[in-house]
Amino acid sequence: MSNPSRIQGLAQWLTRPSWLGGVLGVVLALSYGQMQETAGEGAWRIFLVLAAVALSLGLGVTSVLEQRALRALRAVDRGLLPSTPENLRQALKEARAIPERCFWFTLLGWFGGALLVAVAFPLMVDGTWMGSLRIIQVAIALGPLNALLVYLLVVRRSRKAVDRIAHEGLTALEVIEAVPPVRQNLRRRLLTFTAIAVLCPSIFILDVSISRAVRVMDEILEAQDRAAQEAVVARASSERNLSLGMLSGFVILMVLGTAYAAGAALSEPLHAITEDATRIAKGDLRPPWVIPAEDEVWAASAAFVQMQAQLGQALTQMRRAGEHISTTTEQLVATSTEQESGADEQSSSLNETSATTEELARSAQQIAGNAESVAGIAERTFAAAQGGQRNAAAFLTAMQRMKLDNQSIADAVVRLNKRVQQIGKVVEFINEIADKSDLLALNAELEGTKAGEVGRGFSLVAAEMRRLAENVIRSTRTIEQLIEEIRDATHAAVMATEAGLKTTEAGTLLAAQVDESLSLILELARQTSHAVRSISLATQQQQTGTDQLAAAMGDILRVTEQNAAATRQMVAANSDLSTLSRDLKLVVERFRLTAREGSP
Amino acid sequence: MAVPESEGRQSYLVFACGSSWYAVPAESAAEVVTFPELTRVPGAPAFLLGVFAHRGEVIPVVDMGLLVGTGSQSTRRAVLVRLARGSLALTASTVAGVSPVSGSLEPLGTTGVHLHLRGPAKGAQRDVAVIDPDGLFDHLSQGA
Amino acid sequence: MQGLRVSGILLCHAGTNRIAFPAVDVAVIDAPGLHAGRSRSASVGFGELAGASRVLLAPSGETVGVDTLEIDAELHRVLPLPAVLERVAGGSLLGFIWVRGVLWPLVRLVEFEHFISRGSREAA
């Protein structure tokens, strides 16, 4: 709930001047009437009564109208309605509209009252309609002026009321939004004011002067002689001078007072605006407060308030931006430093990778070279293995042939053996015979020897026979030897054949093994060729890959360098940013923003 | 058998067969011969290598090593010992020469041939076994 | 025996050894087949063991085997036996003869046979 002391009774306070204005005006009118009219006491009393009636009527109507005009405000200030922004806005609008309305109400009251008196008075005192006219004339003369005065007084109060209503719960911008400066009627107002301020007193004074002059003229005309006329003139000039002067002076004072009020009404908001502007220039940016005014000045005030609000917002944003920039800058610096070191690391690791890639390339070349030589070896091995296989095949054929040969040899040997056996038997036989012969001869020789001289011849013959036998034996022995040799030879041949067979078999086996081995070698050679081709391919691919890698790395290196350059630029920019944010901060700090605008 | 005590008066032919040195009375030692291929004798003991003809005479050759039991010594040289009853050649690998021998002439053994080897004696700066030719002859004649 | 002369000698080889027999000691020269098992080779006397291709048969029936033999009808002087060899070969050794440039031990057949038989028996 709002603070009741603020706007309680605001409506009443607001419209109080109208009473004052009304009363003042009536007093003025009455004093004028009192001066002008020569009616009797009774008429005067009736007039007073009428005036009083008119006054109270006028005031009553005015107050009713005013109450209606300040419906919401009254409700709020009495607590009938809560001080919600909606209601406050309504109250605000009413408070803003009330001065002009008071003007018209006052005017209405005056004219209504005047009309009433003008109509009723002649009827009651049987006066002439001229009097009514005169009353109406006075009303026309004094009414607007009075209304203007009331208006000006109410304007000042209405401004204060706006201030107080706003204080209840509206911000300056909301106030401006509620009662936007739409009507720019300053010129019209000034025109009206000038018209009223000039014309009204002029008319009043004119009327007074003319009526007095007419009256004096009438009196003069009525007077017969000159002395009476001079007395009338003297009377006229002495009697009513003071009161007339006072009245005129009073009216002039009223006019001046109105003018002063008007001037004040104009200058107050401007003064306030200037003050605020100066304060802001000094650096004290408080939350904007509405400086109520009307028309163009209200537009200026509203604009000023908006400008203040915007400025405040801008400065807040700037400060926040500055802080944000500061933090962001710090982060950026950190990131840049990290990035720089990261870039350095990247660079060095890339260099390493580059070196490794070069090594890779070299090793790939080596591998390719080795693969080439291996391929060559594999080729040669292949050719050799093929040649070997051919040789093995030839060998196998030879072996088989040899086997056949061996077989035939074996058969021949068997036949030979048989023959030899036969020969052997024969030789044995011969040997036996020879042996026997030899023995015989030997014995014969022995006997011959034993016989001495006599048996000499016999011995000789026997010796001869023995020699024969020995020859035979020797021959047979030779033959036996030959047979033995043949046997040995054939045996050797058989052995050889068997050996040869074995050899052949072994050779065949060997050939088979060789063939197998060669096949293996061939296979190996083929596989080696395959493997070498694969290695070659892989090496080429690796080469391509390595080249690509090298190219990619070159790109990466370039990018890294660019990155590094960009980072350095960023660092430089960051330092600029830091400087900028610092400057910004300095600028913002110049404006001492209160804690209130910390809220969103 | 008489055991002459040698007082260095007699000269001996000192020779070695293998590592053993012997001395034979110089008067008995006829010569040192180089024998050709020997004819083996049937029924002869092992130490009797064989015989050879030397100047119309058949000389048996005895291997001293086998005789004394030290082992055969291959040599073509022998010392020809000539006694009245016959000749005998003793194989010698080295002949030192003729020199006096001093020492005792006690039998060096109690059995077999060692009875006929005398010593200990020294001849030609060596320890020699002096051979008693007669005794040796007797010994050889018995055993067969 | 000094001054012994002999004509008619069987010059034999028994293994690597030479041995000669007087022709009068031998009745018949036979092939070994006829005396298989009974005759010993003369090489036994030399401490060797060899076969025989001829067998010398003494009149008294002793046999000695030899490898080869030659009959030499010439008269040859028998070199006297060295004293130390008097008792060898069971006293069968007569002496030595110089024939064909080499010495041959001249041996009496029967005594020699006895000797080698004894030797064989002793050896057995």
Biggest pleated sheet of chain A: none
> Which percent range describes the beta-strand content of chain B?
over 45%
- Computed CA radius of gyration of chain B, to the nearest angstrom: 14 Å
Indicate the overall shape of chain B.
globular
Q: For the largest beta sheet of chain B, what order do the strands appear in spatially?
A: 1-2-10-9-8
Count of folded domains of chain B: 1
Strand content of chain A is under 5%
Overview of this protein structure:
The complex is a heterotrimer of chains A (600), B (144) and C (124). By secondary structure, chain A is mostly helical. Chain A is built from eleven helices and no strands. Chain A has two domains: 4-293, no CATH class; 364-573, Helix Hairpins (Orthogonal Bundle), CATH 1.10.287.950. In chain A, helix 2 packs antiparallel against helix 9, helix 4 packs across helix 5 (85-125) and helix 6 runs parallel beside helix 9 (226-282). Chain A is rod-shaped. With 144 residues, chain B is mostly beta strands. Chain B has a single domain, classed as CheA-289, Domain 4 (OB fold (Dihydrolipoamide Acetyltransferase, E2P)). Chain B has a five-stranded mixed β-barrel. In chain B, strands 3-6-7-5-4 form a five-stranded mixed beta sheet. The model of chain B has no long low-confidence stretch (mean pLDDT 83). In chain C, the strands form two sheets. Chain C has a five-stranded antiparallel beta sheet with strand order 2-1-7-8-9. In chain C, strands 3-5-6-4 form a four-stranded mixed beta sheet, covered by helices on one side. Chain C has one helix and nine strands. Chain C has 124 residues and is mainly beta. Chain C has one domain (5-123). Chain C is 12% helix and 44% strand. Chains in contact: A-C, B-C. Chain B binds chain C through residues 39-44, 46, 48, 51-53, 56-60, 62, 85-88, 137, 140-142, 144, and chain C through 17-19, 42, 45-47, 79-90, 92-93, 95-96, 98, 102-105, 107, 112, 115, 119.
